[in-house]
Amino acid sequence: MTGTTPLVSVSDHGALKQAYSCFPTGVVAVCRRTSDGDDIGMSASSFTTVSLDPPLVSVCVRDGSSTWPRLVTADRLGVSVFASHQGDACRRLAGPPESRFDDVHRSITDSGALFIAGAAAQLECSVLQEVPAGDHLVVLLQIHALRSDPSVDPLVFHASTFRALEARRAQS
């Protein structure tokens, strides 16, 4: 890209999506088990850390999501940071609701937080706040308990595909 490449209008949604895809993100599952025993969850690629004190993370949810209204009412949600080998599970959780958990190994806490087995990190959270933002909600989640394994590489989403991280030595 050069400085002479013309800027395009943000009304061009294709160009906007392409620009957004230039920024790599981690991918998470947000899940719960209902008191009726139903497993509900979805994948999200707009996840970020927010605060250490109090411990907060955020996830963005599309307006009109049919899954979010079934998640937001939970006392506790499980947020699983997908590991690099979990692309299939991530795609499944983004697919049709009736088959999202087919062949997806998971665990459930007493509070109903549902976690994807083998994830790089698992955060037991509650919804602190929902902030309307354009065609999405920015959801602030407070973390109550967690487990993590920094030796497990995370799944990375970049340019509309899954990628792996590469460790590089600092140059002197």
TrEMBL record:
InterPro entries: Flavin_Rdtase-like_dom, NADH-dep_flavin_reductase, Split_barrel_FMN-bd. Residues 20-164 form the Flavin reductase like domain. Keywords: Oxidoreductase. It comes from the Bacteria. Pfam families: Flavin_Reduct. Belongs to the non-flavoprotein flavin reductase family. PANTHER family: FLAVIN REDUCTASE, FLAVIN-DEPENDENT MONOOXYGENASE, REDUCTASE SUBUNIT HSAB. This is Flavin reductase family protein. It comes from Gordonia liuliyuniae.
